[in-house]
Specification:
The chain is α+β, with helices and mostly antiparallel strands. The protein is built from two helices and three strands, in the order βββαα. The protein has a three-stranded antiparallel sheet with strand order 1-2-3. The longest helix has 14 residues. It is globular, with a radius of gyration of 11 Å.
């Protein structure tokens, strides 16, 4: 995987993975994106590589997937 890994909706939300060991990411986003990230961190841990795919189809869930 080439870093940084960036997923975004231009002008709205952005997730940038900058390091895998230790895992670090930068996030710019709306409240919904932050809620999805917080929920996943709480239920599945800090490393997003270990997170399950989300069933929801809202923009925040699609970015996280």
């Amino acid at each position: 995987m080439d870093l940084p890994l960036v997923v975004e909706i231009k002008g709205r939300d952005r997730i940038e993975v900058i390091s895998l060991d230790p895992f670090k990411m930068k996030v710019i986003g709306c409240e919904q994106l932050w809620q999805v990230l917080h929920k996943m961190k709480k239920s599945s841990g800090l490393d997003i590589r270990l997170w399950p795919l989300l069933a929801e189809k809202d923009h925040a869930s699609l970015l996280v997937n």
